[in-house]
Design goal:
about 525 residues, mainly alpha, 8 strands, three-stranded antiparallel beta sheet
Length: about 525
């Protein structure tokens, strides 16, 4: 009896390569981290110049005292930084007493540090190490406009005729527009009838004001650009704004060694010193870490506030700004690339592992498939920052995990959609021939339909990967790292070169991913 000879099933040479790539993506999520001798203290900072600088000063102070520390910089706004502290994802970060009272504790007044700590104790937090300066909010205009309008106080602004007031274009920061001690309460306290325009990033507001694109902005009293641009800061004549004394907000569980090391910063920065440090970052374009090192070196040589403040103002040659190439290939590039790749390919592996089975299931059920495609399409319409904020709130944590899940959600649509489309394009005759040979539905899918659909499926994976390379830059807002760190830091100090040092590697990475998957896609096409 002659054996039955089955015709050769379609063989796709790219299947092993695709499976190998998927295994490499999964490996990024499962590689164990090396054990450390001691868990480093995570120092946080928010997304503006002064917070970056103070965060670096805190981290370097700890490291100099032999306490391992890492700086998780640029953690979005106050809400994200506070949540990270409450969850223990950072142990300490620079904050201001007025913000603690109103944003965290929802109270009023200017309590002493002892009173503040009584209120913070039930939350497992404490405020300590008053740094020595008050950085209050204020409103500012161009000096020429202030003179023309005759305004020196916020009350003067409120008394302007409606026509003159409404001609003012505002460039208020997003956070100031919604804070409990921000614009809504300020407008009510002073009777300001001005309706603010769209929010503007604080790092761009000064440039917009100087370029006469806006007329009124919110500022911090230690902003370096105030004197440089010759702005008129309106006096808060009704004392609406509380004191914003800079302190270190920390968990009560912060190790004793770390607390002892940080005490040496108490009272070491006055307003003049902080303005000078901000100027080094914003005007001289020095990296935040370099600014912090210079301050600590001056402290070691002359440990008084007065001499530390005077040092930056002493006659000296113009500071050398790092060139673009130097910034591009800075020592943090390997770390940022590794974090970015882990986010992109980790989320891509999850999306393939979930999206392909969903596509297979939906292709056999047209009605359910339509609902599924609508659902994953809806995820694409959610703004990335909004999705990150929701995931941070739901998961109760910041960093890698919420960023990974957000990118996974964005990658689902092209993968699910192309899986359905690729399977639908498989000729019905080939499927029927395979069934006639006695292959089960699973074997037909595995040996016939998926290999033939692979080029279309890979096109969806390519689209998802390229989208995620770009979207992953936003993950820096929640402390997930990646190349977005440079972009966010550059945005904070309005430094195009710093932003480009993050954007260019991300763009090149996207091109590399496009080319790599394109080659794999071409190889996946079965010769006819």
């Amino acid at each position: 009896m002659q054996p039955i000879c089955q015709p050769a099933l379609p063989h796709n040479p790219a299947v092993p390569a695709f499976l190998f790539l998927l295994m490499c993506c999964v490996a990024l999520l499962t590689v164990p981290q090396p054990a450390a001798a001691a868990e480093p203290v995570a120092v946080g900072s928010k997304r503006f110049t002064e917070s970056y600088v103070l965060g670096e000063i805190v981290a370097q102070t700890l490291q100099a005292a032999g306490v391992p520390a890492v700086h998780r910089q640029g953690l979005g706004n106050t809400a994200i930084a506070l949540q990270a502290l409450m969850r223990g994802e950072v142990q300490v970060y620079p904050e201001y007493t007025g913000t603690i009272v109103r944003e965290l504790l929802k109270r009023e007044g200017n309590p002493t540090l002892a009173e503040l700590n009584v209120w913070l104790a039930p939350r497992g937090l404490m405020a300590a190490v008053p740094l020595g300066f008050n950085n209050t909010y204020a409103l500012a205009l161009r000096e020429a406009d202030a003179q023309r309008l005759g305004v020196a106080t916020i009350s003067d602004l409120a008394r302007l005729p409606p026509a003159a007031l409404n001609r003012l274009r505002t460039g208020l920061s997003h956070e100031f527009l919604v804070r409990a001690d921000g614009w809504p309460a300020l407008a009510k306290a002073y009777g300001l009838a001005l309706k603010p325009g769209p929010g503007l990033d604080h790092g761009l507001a000064f440039q917009a004001l100087a370029g006469e694109q806006v007329d009124l902005i919110d500022v911090y009293s230690t902003d370096a650009q105030i004197g440089r641009l010759g702005l008129r800061v309106l006096r808060d004549d009704r004392a609406f704004f509380p004191r914003y004394d800079a302190v270190l907000l920390m968990r009560q569980s912060l190790p004793e060694a770390a607390q002892r090391a940080l005490v040496q910063l108490e009272g070491r920065l006055d307003e003049a010193t902080m303005i000078a440090l901000n100027a080094e970052a914003e005007i001289d374009r020095k990296p935040f870490a370099e600014v912090a090192r210079g301050f600590l070196a001056r402290q070691a040589a002359a440990p008084s506030v007065a001499s530390a403040a005077a040092a930056p103002a002493a006659p000296a040659p113009a500071p050398s700004r790092p060139g673009f190439v130097e910034r591009l290939f800075a020592p943090d590039l390997p770390r940022l690339l590794a974090e970015h790749l882990a986010l992109v390919f980790g989320s891509l592996a999850l999306a393939v592992a979930v999206g392909v089975p969903l596509g297979v299931w939906a292709q056999a059920r047209p009605r359910a498939g339509a609902v599924l495609r609508g659902a994953v399409g809806l995820l694409q319409t959610v703004p990335s920052l909004a999705l990150l904020a929701v995931l941070v709130a739901l998961l109760g944590r910041i960093g890698f995990v919420p960023a990974l899940l957000a990118l996974f959600a964005y990658a689902l649509l092209p993968i699910v959609g192309n899986t359905i489309a690729g399977l639908a394009a498989v000729p019905a005759g080939l499927v029927q021939a395979a069934q006639a040979l006695g292959l089960s539905r699973r074997d037909v899918m595995r040996h016939v339909m998926l290999p033939l659909a692979l080029p279309v499926l890979l096109a969806g994976v390519t689209t998802a990967a390229v989208i995620n390379v770009g979207t992953a830059t936003v993950a820096a807002f929640v402390g997930a790292g990646g190349l977005g760190e440079r972009i966010v830091a550059g945005l904070a100090v309005n430094d195009p070169a710093q932003m480009l040092a993050g954007a260019l590697p991300a763009a090149l990475l996207a091109v590399g991913v496009q080319v790599g998957f394109g080659l794999l896609e071409r190889r996946s096409r079965i010769p006819r």
